[in-house]
């Protein structure tokens, strides 16, 4: 029985030492899905090119607005978002940091050293609509 335990431990060590490479885009998509689950995020903020590719392909780019840097077994992630008007920005940012870190570490085994949240704007469409409805009443 002792030999079986040694084999199992030996197999785990072999798996840890293998050369598994995870692409930046994979980590960015995992982070994007985690961010999309956070209440108060209106959308990911990406560049003009990202918007054009979404229109042409008809698909939503889940990595939009996310920059990933991977080294050996760690990663640093930058998230660019637009928040909904009326949400508490520090709470939204904190939840993003927690969800992204947990999702990426769980799925990839990488150690997330940083999740930087950059708020690029505030969506005021709902706030303006609500004000107009109040005035009309």
Q: State the end-to-end distance.
A: 78 Å
Number of separate strands: 4
H/E element string?
Answer: HHEHEEHEH
The rough form would be described as elongated
**Which spans of ≥5 residues are poorly predicted at pLDDT below 50?**
1-15, 48-58
Number of helices: 5
Residue-averaged pLDDT, rounded? 80
Could you tell me the strand content as a percent range? 15-25%
Proportion of helical residues: 40-55%
**Class per helix and strand makeup:** alpha+beta
The rounded Rg comes to: 20 Å
Largest sheet: 4 strands, mixed
In short:
With about 140 residues, this protein is of the alpha+beta class. The protein is built from 5 helices and 4 strands; from the N terminus they run H-H-E-H-E-E-H-E-H.
How would you sum up this structure, described in words?
By secondary structure, the protein is of the alpha+beta class. Helices cover 52% and strands 25% of the residues. The chain has helices at 2-17, 24-36, 48-57, 89-108, 125-136; strands spanning 41-44, 66-71, 74-84, 111-123. Strand 3 (74-84), helix 4 and strand 4 form a beta-alpha-beta unit. Helix 2 packs across helix 4. The longest helix has 20 residues, at 89-108. The protein starts with a helix and ends with a helix. Residues 1-15 and 48-58 have low confidence and may be disordered.
